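## retry 2 of 3
previous attempt timed out at serialization; input unchanged, resubmitting
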Amino acid sequence: MKPILVALILSAWLPSAAGAQAPSASAAPSQALSIPVFGTFDRSSIVLAYYRSPLWEAILADRKFELKTVKAANDTARANELEKYGSESQDRAMEQLAGKAPIANILEVLQPEIKELSARMKLAGIVESPGPDPKAATVDVTSLLMDWLKASAEPRKMAAELHQQHPAGK
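## retry succeeded, writing output
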């Protein structure tokens, strides 16, 4: 969703947000009603986008190049470490996709975009769906994060199919 469209949707929706209260009579006229809005993202979509991103491909390419180099130098200890890294990365990705492992490594990579989106869209923060409070005002930023990761049509399609098979809350 384009930021301008999101802003229009938010401006139309926020005044009637659940739990919104009118400012008290003692409130100064310059104090506007302030409802924190959180950006949310779908975990599985972001995991798929990250592990199919050009960024992850570059990390793997570096590791593969290093593996080839250390094998040529007969550095078996480092070669074993790199092979273990590959295996552990694949296991971690599957656990993250299943929701059984934290996604701290992905969130670390996303920090520049999370900060930029939060500032640009005036968000209180960006968190994993469903959000900090079911009554809180939220806007889904999954597609914007996927754009930043340069997600192709393939992980987007995979995420959609995954959601059809396992709808949230069912």
